[in-house]
Amino acid sequence: MFVAIYWWRVHPGKEDQFRSAWRRGTDLIREKYGSYGSRLHRDADGRFVGYAEWPDEATWRAAFDRKMVYDDPETRAAFVDAIAEVPPDADPIFTMTVTDDLLLRSRHEDGP
């Protein structure tokens, strides 16, 4: 398994818009590119951090090279509109190969 970690700063007041677009975009990326999905976190500084799992680096790289474009312009526009800042070139802050996985799997649609 392969992991990519991203971060975004969101315009104040657009957090729900961002989270909704992120959830829909994650579903579309999973369907189109074969990811395993993602988890969204928020750090103490207010930055959103996404942890995305992929079957392998080649699958992630193919999607990343295509900028993970999906066929839902409204979702993409809502996502981009909510974002105030991303890392240079929107590159992930980490990409890693999983060596040991002890996470229990559960799905929480709406988060905590």
UniProtKB/TrEMBL annotation:
This is Antibiotic biosynthesis monooxygenase. GO terms for molecular function: monooxygenase activity. InterPro entries: ABM_dom, Dimeric_a/b-barrel. It comes from the Bacteria. Residues 1-64 form the ABM domain. Gene3D superfamilies: 3.30.70.100. Keywords: Monooxygenase, Oxidoreductase. Pfam families: ABM.
